[in-house]
Amino acid sequence: MIHHVEINVSDLQTSRAFWDWIFQELGYSVYQDWDQGVSWRSGATYLVFVQTEANYLDIPYHRKRVGLNHLAFQANSKEQVDRMTKHLEERGVPILYKDRHPYAGGPGHYAVFFEAPDRIKVEIVAP
Fold it and tell me: By CB atoms within 10 Å of each CB, which of 35, 50, 73, 97 scores lowest?
């Protein structure tokens, strides 16, 4: 079981606004909150987002480099995936692999794929 994951972000306020409704929809709640970071928790696991120091912002994140490729979250149902897809589109968040949505992960894999503000790919998967 993962205890927690910490992710450095380029703009904490932008990331916080982006993730807050997603985590609320998925059943997470704010766990820690301080000037340079915030975390959301579900059960014993939590995700932390921390403001990157200015002197480390020169090279942006890209999921195809060495490191994290994407985060995948479990939805409660296909309907929840559909509802979240609609909300993402209403917020102007592009859906990745739109031509294959909601089966971009393959037959029987019902999910929505999109990018967070720092271009971290996110997947929300139906059971």
Answer: 35
94-120 b/e (C-beta count within 10 Å ≥ 16 → b): ebbeeeebbebbeeeebbbbbbbbbeb
**Pairing of the two strands 45-51 and 37-42:** antiparallel
1-56 and 68-126: same fold? yes
Hey, what are 11's tokens? Answer: 């703009």
Listed by start position, the domains of the chain span 1-56, 68-126
- How far CA 89 is from CA of 65, 83, 86, 95, in Å, comes to 27, 10, 5, 7
